[in-house]
Design goal:
- The protein is 44% helix and 13% strand.
- By secondary structure, the protein is α/β, with parallel strands linked by helices.
- Strands 3-2-1-4-5 form a 5-stranded parallel sheet, with helices on both faces.
- β4, α6 and β5 form a beta-alpha-beta unit.
- The relative contact order is 0.20.
Length: 135
């Protein structure tokens, strides 16, 4: 079964837009068609942004988060040299849980690594839309 690691922006979007593509990913996990994981770091970033921008989405967010596997960052994992330092905990947690795919909407920082697992230790980094197109 494919293991997906969800970045904070995917969590944020799924919580405040229950009809969107990110919410579809959550639904796939709830139906056990994929395994879903995230980290406490990503969860906290999503929670902070939801509290500021969409506070009514916090309750659905907490319910959603309870159904995800929360994995730890492994600081011993090396990151690609040009990856922004703020994204190291996301990359390392995705690698630590042996995710097949890291789903993110962060094109600015992860964009250079999208669909290039040869540059990311075998980890496929994609947007939600790209992942869904490939199904």
């Amino acid at each position: 079964m494919t293991r997906l690691f969800l970045d904070a922006n995917v969590l944020f979007t799924a919580a405040h837009n229950p009809q969107g593509k990110a919410a579809l990913i959550i639904s796939l996990g709830q139906h056990r068609l994929v395994e879903l994981a995230t980290s406490a770091y990503a969860g906290e970033e999503a929670r902070r942004n939801l509290a500021r921008k969409f506070p009514k989405a916090l309750e659905p967010f907490e319910t959603m988060l309870a159904h995800l596997t929360i994995v730890a960052d492994d600081i011993t994992i090396a990151c690609p040299a040009s990856l922004a330092e703020k994204d190291h905990p996301i990359y390392r947690a995705a690698q630590a849980c042996r995710a097949d795919v890291l789903l993110t909407g962060d094109l600015r920082d992860f964009g250079p690594f999208m669909n290039q697992p040869q540059r990311t230790g075998g980890l496929l980094i994609q947007t939600v839309a790209s992942y869904l197109e490939g199904l």
